[in-house]
Amino acid sequence: MHIDARRLTRPALALAAALLLLTGCAPTTAQPDPHGSASHVPSSAGEVVTIDDAWVKSAAEGMTAGFGILSNPTDDEITIVSARTEAAARVELHETVSDSASGGTTMREVRGGLVIPAGGTLELAPGGEHLMLMGLTAPVEAGQEVQFTLTFSDESTMSFTAAVKDFTGAQEHYESEHDEHSGHSEHDSDQGH
Q1: Is the dihedral of CA 87, 161, 49, 171 positive or negative?
Q2: Going along the chain, which residue ranges are E strands?
Q3: CA dist., res. 155 & res. 129, Å (int)
């Protein structure tokens, strides 16, 4: 903008100077990230986490487990604090640990949630961390699908569908602090995982 100061009165000159200053201080439009994401806008975990290869072990009753590979594209860890599905009375977040007493492995609930590392993945797999479905509401048969909803530490959620498959591996013992589940035998735990 070019202004001829010789033709302006003092008030007009002051106004022109103020307009030039305001134009120079105007906010600029944010430039998009070259990768196509608006990195300056925080997203909830439920908006950014994805899952691949989601599946559930078939079971006639009792317990079973859900698996898949969760991805976190952000620069921060993301924690899953709970999960739910209509296929079971409740879902626990589980890990599998070595049981020195029996020489086998034991499944137990994870306190504090499951962590998806920053810029990484969390594999939910037989013999490892998984979603434990407790008190199935009906048989879960191969060919069906199970709908899950995960809740994250930021209180956001994401839903996904997992295919039901037959699977006979990873026979762990189930360890629980709940009275109704204490005393599970190896046979009982076979249904769950």
Answers
A1: positive
A2: 50-57, 63-71, 78-84, 88-99, 104-109, 114-116, 121-124, 130-136, 145-152, 157-165, 173-174
A3: 21
Q: Is the pLDDT higher at 186 or at 104?
A: 104
Tell me how far apart the alpha carbons of residues 176 and 173 are, in angstroms, rounded to a whole number.
Answer: 10
Task: Please name which of 101, 120, 113 lies closest in space to residue 175, comparing C-alpha atoms.
Answer: 101
Averaged pLDDT, 98-103: 76
Amino acid at 131: L
**How would you classify residue 15: left for phi > 0, otherwise alpha for psi between -120 and 50, otherwise beta?**
alpha
**pLDDT tens digits for 149-164?**
999 999 999 999 999 9
43-69: b or e for each residue (b if 16 or more CB lie within 10 Å)?
eebbebbebeebbbbbbeebbbbbbbe
Span 53-62, pLDDT tens digits: 999 999 999 9
